[in-house]
Write the structure tokens for this entry.
Amino acid sequence: MTPPTPAIVTQNAVSPLPRWALLLLCIAYVVPGFVGRDPWKNADVTAFGYMLELAQGRTPWLSPLLGGMPPETEGLLPYWLGAWAVQMAPAWLSPEMAARIPFIALLVITLMATWYGVYYLARSPGAQPVAFAFGGEASPLDYARAIADGALLALIACLGLAQLSHEVTSYLAQLGCTALLFFAVAAMPHRSVAPAVALVLGMAGLTLSGAPALTALLGMGGALLALFAPAGNTDRRWRWAAVLAAATLAAAALAQGLDLWRWRVVGFDGGGKDWLSLARLLLWFGWPAWPLALWTLWRWRQQIFSRPGQRHLLLPLWFTLVSIGATITTQPADRALLLGLPALAALAAFALPTLRRSVGALIDWFTLLFFTASALAIWVIWIAMQTGVPAKPAANVAKLAPGFVPQFSALALLVAVAATVGWCGLAWWRASRNRAPIWKSLVLPAGGAALGWLLLMTLWLPLLDYARSYGPQVRSVVAALGPEPGCIQTVGLNRAQVAALQFHGQLSLQRAGLQDECQWLLVDSASWPASERMVRAELWEARATLPRPTDKNENLLLFRRAAPAR
């Protein structure tokens, strides 16, 4: 027998979040970070470097190289998407912006798939609120929309989503495909065509993006849930379980055929430092969704272990556990945890019908204070950069980013002012009266996260570009080389450095030992003196040491040939 649901929700509590407000919030979150910035180190500029090499025909599509180095991840789909976008883009669109267009679509797909996935989960019989003796309980469709709105707000509010979801890397492709797979399994009892298409695209895309093991785990878990946590008739659940199992086997065969299987489990050094770092990551990355998710597991605990299983709880729980397991056992940990955020947001959404009023008020006040203080700090430091007042923040910026010259943009200022005014209006709306909708407790966290991200990507964008891109260092390299430097030999440069030098500086690079007629040698300081098999140090004379302004440990050494090439 299924235990009674803990959700007690009236019809008044499921009034929909206005679609225009939700759309405006999504636009304010998605667009900043994709528009107007340089590629950042390291994963962002590296991925873009491979895309540019492919688009310009300088490397094979099935085995791309950047500076003679293959990609660190086996999945090639993200590089192909960016390269195709660069090739098809009109001449007036910059290559870096063109490469971001497919990834903008992937982030939009992530948000949409999360909303619709939670919407269909909330329509499950076990997810429905308590039926009142004299009526007045929430209608199933309105309840599902309110829960889905809450899940989307929880996803946007997650602090770890902002930067990683705005990079042109395989991890954003994996996030979008994981969200598609989540939607496919969630919607199977209610739809046929859309889940089937999402299943094929999600599994194929996740495999081709370099995560075949994750595909297999999620697919087989979904097949078991279709059997043991049904939401339809027996024939339908067996059919969908078979479809999921077949799609998982097909994805595994695709990975085997393309040699994508890799053992990526890493150990710990035993000193405790890695565990502490992991704990900090788990604490802030999914905030504020994870406390709400834990509350869901507690309040719905009887339903989780009931028979038949409750798919609206077990499905997001399985996706979350797989992501956390990958976070603990693989590197990079934050990228693995990123893939679990849609499912974590789904779990958080089912806490909303069970929250006490005091808990909601605590969330509101904490969020209001945190994001208001953060926005105020961003504004004060921006004013200090522009005017020199207050003096201490201006001095700190000058110390941390030596050589940075502040830039003023009227458009950026206008957008930032509009966002700040919108935040003030949102805070006033939330505090002005006792709002009934169950999604109300996540409005301020989502709005605050969007505000902070937008302010950083407008007011602070020139500073962040200066600090996080290779542009300033590459410009100093180009200035030291002079006009028409010809080919340049390199030693010890990583993928990100090669990509930045080729993109920002339009330089022709050759690895040392492959081209002996180059008059210039560019070396990462950590790799000098180099092995004599690569270069003979006596043939070169030092010309310049070129640091990254914001990193004292990342220097490039420039040499000129001192003797004729042999």
User: Anything to note?
Assistant: The chain has a mean pLDDT of 90.
